[in-house]
Amino acid sequence: MTNKPTYKELEQRVKELEQALKQIKTEHKQSEKSLRFSNARFRNLFENAAFGIIICRLIKDEKGRAIDFEHLQVNAATRRHTGFNPETLVGKRALEVAAIEDIANIIKIYGQVVATGKPYEYEQHFTIYDRTLQVGAFPIEDDLFALTFIDITKRKHSEKALRESELRFRSTFEQAAVGICHTNPSGKFVRLNKRFSDIVGYSKNEIFLLTWQDITHPDDLEADLEYVKQVVNNEIQTYSMEKRFIRKDNSIVWVNLTVSLVRGNTGEPQYFIGVIEDIDYRKKMEEQLRQNQKMEAIGVLAGGIAHDFNNLLGVISGNVSFALSQLNYSKELFEALEDVQEGTKQAQNLTQQLLTFAKGGEPIKRTANLNHLIIESAKFVTRGAKSKCEFSLANDLWAVEIDSGQINQVISNLIINASQAMPDGGRIKIRTENTEIEADNNLTQQADRFIKVTVEDQGIGISEKHLKKIFEPFFSTKQKGSGLGLATSYSIIKKHGGHITVYSELDKGTAFHIYLPASSDIYKEIKENKDHSHHGQGKILIMDDQEPILEMLGRLLNQMGYETAFSTDGVQAVEMYQKAYQSQHPYDLIILDLTVPGGMGGAETILELLKIDPKVKAIVSSGYSNDPIMANYNEYGFCGVIAKPYTKSQLTQLLNKIFQEEH
Asked: Which residues does residue 277 pair with via DSSP β-bridges, in sequence order?
């Protein structure tokens, strides 16, 4: 039997219950207040969020598989980010909205989020609104989950534009016609395009191990470094200069360089941008132009010297030949004068070579025996050399019409080159032969007969890359070479209607082949001695600005039986010729100096004489033996030509030819 509580105990129990109930009510009120506050805070966050939020409920089938989801709550920002109207979404299922591509896969993903309790983020493009969204799916409780949306369309467009810009930049950078590079502040290459690599002659991997200072020509380095210093110090923004790079093969390439500096946010140097344009060809052309101008000036000077020198030689040669004609062969003086005569010939050859080298000019062709010329040239240029010439010359070699002085220069150039290619000495093989070249070959378009001359050495040879350039003006593999020898030789052979070719192998030797058109004439060797004579009568007028020439020529012609008269310029010669012509006692011949400084020369004089007497017989003479008038004298109205200096024998032959044609 239990004891019943007393009244006092019951009263105490009631008080405790009232106290507990009061505490419960207080806590309940506080919970309601917290819940209201929490709901208000959630609602405020939900409605005022900067990104779209949708509270969704997953819908499953009888097997618990996610088949759809319902939109329960949608905040205002959803419209701004997705384009969806919140009013049209609330209470609607996803399949009803049908605005999401690949909806079946999306529902499956959301099912996994609810099942695993793990959030999931992805990018989704909504074609209907042409927007790209960053979507996040987050589990809440049971089948509830939240979706967040951030519009990243602009960012995606910016990223796309950036990629396209970078692609265009890379395309422009790599395909640019100029070389472009980036270097760090210390000068090390960090980026460059293919054109830059091609210009400087290094692969990209090779050049990344270098600095721009490493490949800059020493003579340009100081100026380049000074410009860089000014750019770094903000004294200038950019600079341009012409400079030289040293390529991998140690060759030099000229470039036009433009440099600018890219700085960081705080102004510190980040990297340099260098742009180079290959101007090597232009620089070489400029150098060639300067050389041409120098050579033109030398040509003028050389021509004047050669003219005056030939006049002096003419006086010597003419008077010596006159003296020889007055002496007996047995006298010692005869031999001494012959040596002087031979010396004037050599001096004449030297002046002719100087003129050909400096000014070129049309060849004055005469029928010649090429074998004799080759032997004389070879002996002259190899005198004192370590090399020796071996001849294999055809006995039945056809005659050629050549300018002996010019062809002598060609042969001399080739033999000198051959000798220099064998510094320790060796054999230079020289061959001549007759050859007929068929039509449509590499040398000529029509079949013809040629004399072939071969000059072959056993020297160091010429590399393939240099072989293509050896006939170019100013190209030379020699440190002290002018690069004009072979270019001049090429020009001379071409002006003779011939061809010159070359074959070479390194360390085996070089062979030059010259082809000169054969002449149909038969060469007859001319001996300059007293057996060649001329006797005539009549009057000959001589025009020359040099008194010694007039005296020498008058002496020779008087001995031959002619009456002579003299004039020192063309104006006087025309007056004298006209006076004699009108008096019925004309001159039988007039010899005109082509060049009269400060006066009327032979070219102008012959025009005036032809007006007086269309049948005038005139000989043109000059120390400028390479003048076109000398090569084509008959086209200008002259009946003969004689180059200074000349001997009595040469004058005799010319007079014989002129006056024999008259009869």
From this structure: 256
